[in-house]
Amino acid sequence: MIKEYLNVNSEEAKREIAQTTMGMYVIRQEGAKEKDELEDVGVVIEGVELLSNLRSISLGFAILFGLIYTLNLSYPQELKYTFEFFQKVLMTLDGNKLSPKIQTLKIKMLQ
Length: 111
Description:
- This protein is an alpha+beta fold and about 110 residues long.
- It folds into two domains: about 1-75, no CATH class; about 75-110, no CATH class.
- The chain has helices spanning about 10-20, 55-70, 80-90, 100-110, and strands spanning about 1-5, 20-30, 40-45, 50.
- Strands 1-2-3-4 form a four-stranded mixed beta sheet, with helices on both faces.
- It is globular and about 45 Å long.
- About 10% of the residues are buried.
- The model has no long low-confidence stretch (mean pLDDT about 90).
């Protein structure tokens, strides 16, 4: 869902972004620490970089979810449960209808 790249590997990043179904990318400067400012954060849907130069991962995440709802997109099969967890448990959107896997995870989290 979130792929991280170093700014020295821009060609590799462009190739992988073009093959991304849905997600975000983060570009860090080489040698940067975790708390250092990110060079770029962007949102990708079907290999197209829709937005870039976002200020943070959380902003990118909110925009990605907004685009999914606005464009009425289905979650990619390989990330279906990840997106469902974020949507229904963390964001409490349509939280009454949980799949069995997500229901089990939610119960374990609340124990």
